[in-house]
Amino acid sequence: MPRFELDDVDNVDSKSSLVNRASRSSTLPDVDAIFHDPVKNHDFETYFEEKIHVPHYAKEDEQNCGPSFRQFDMPPFSWRKLWAFTGPGFLMSIAYLDPGNIESDLQSGSVAGYQLLTMLLLATVMGLMMQRLAARLGVVTGMHLAEVCNKKYKKIPRLILWVMVEIAIIGSDMQEVIGSAIAFVLLSGGAIPLWAGVLITACDAFLFLLVDKYGLRKLEALFAILISIMALTFGYEYIKVAPDQKEVVLGVLLPTCKDCGRKQLLQAVGIIGAVVMPHNIYLHSALVKSRDIDRSHSRSVREANFYYLVEAAIALLVSFVINLFVVSVFAEAFHGVTNKEMNMTCANTSIPNSPGAFPYDNVTANETVDSDLFRGGIFLGCYFGPAAYYIWAIGILAAGQSSTMTGTYSGQFVMEGFLDLKWSRFRRILLTRSIAIGPTLLLAIFTDVYRLTGMNDLLNVLQSLQLPFALIPILHFTTSSDLMGEFKNSWGWFIVGIIISIVVVGINLFFVVVYIDELPHVGYYVLCGFLALAYMCFVGYLAWHLITGLFDVCGSKTHLYRRGQKLQSSDEECLAGNIDRSKSQTGDLEAINADSA
User: CB–CB of 126/314 below 8 Å?
Assistant: First the structure.
């Protein structure tokens, strides 16, 4: 009987002495054993207590997926299974359609015409790549990203990471609440004040609780309705305005930006912060846990990863088309319009809120109009009639309401995962919504709608600054053999993830330089310099953990399983410092060889 070396052993099944890599039914890494939590507490479950069933068919284990020349070790494709897995990707895609994204879209069109559509496509593709990693982490490990961070990082870095993610969630929530409040102002013709719109929006968290109580599928159906409303309303605007289709296609396919200055450049890089949101990666890794997946079989896990990728691609394609509608509408009708022209046009209409929406003097008369969610609706009403005005407001309301509910989900998972809270849903929703609603309500009371919508750029920058705190951990954990086993990232995916992370950090540094340059007093320079240094140090800390995990700085890495239980790994000892290495790996290897003999 041949003897096995450490590198030859991939998995040991409970029913046989050794199962090699080609086995169709291999045991995945035992995450509980890795994190020394053999007795997992199943008494407390916040969500997904009743998982959605995935259908299985007779003899599906005997067949593979794909054409004869390229077979995959998973069951053949099934539309019924794709339907069973459909849901998490569309909930995730809501973040790509929140009011912050919509405002970024209309500003892109009004500032640069069709020329930034390529950036929108690039940001969406980058988002899909990172969402793929998030879904795989949740499927393979059975834990979402915040839970893994809780286990892998020490207390102080973990708390700092939690604060950074919470800042991103608060920034996103503020955009969503502001968007919904503006929609109420538009629909009511100003009868509902901005602060009242904020309070009405705050109540939707409890609507979310009521719908969630009746089952996840009903909640997913609600989100599907809201996405359909956005597609119909913004699609109506697209048909009404009738953009030049040739310019739309060229804008998507050709990365050019003629006569672009600093304003256009800022808008281009701001798209990344608006589209790719850090908390959405945490959200998606949790949502995929809602399906009943047999994680003890690699075929089932590979199948789930495939269907989740297909579903996420479809969902983000839908979100890209909706975003394209908005950019194209304002590129065609709003680009280059001056304050004087807008006032002359709106003076001949009875559109609500139009008086005083576009003020100007001798200096600003020929300047292009500043665009935002509020002025965008008035503009559409003045040029294309009341129907365009109210339909725009309905679309913004659907975007705001849906994204506030997914924001609530994100807040729940992040707080539960990082802090290991055992609070009730009501208490946690009350806390997370208060954190986001409080600052927005104060702003709504003490400022006007024009200044409030102008916060969008700042909030996009804020979320862009938090992106490394989602990108680096997800890249770190999905590259770990101890967590992902055979499903860890390939070198190709790892390099793509590194490139995306470097691009994001570079964009963040660019924003820091731009905003520091605009500060009025030298004291702000010192403060921002200190914060920038602390920011880069923490990013460096996360990057160092990624590198040590990848190249095994602390010693040689082993991947050894015995009777379905994962043995010690020097990589885990290096990263977490909590692996008991009292057992000799040599002795374990000899035991395996003795069993196999």
Answer: no
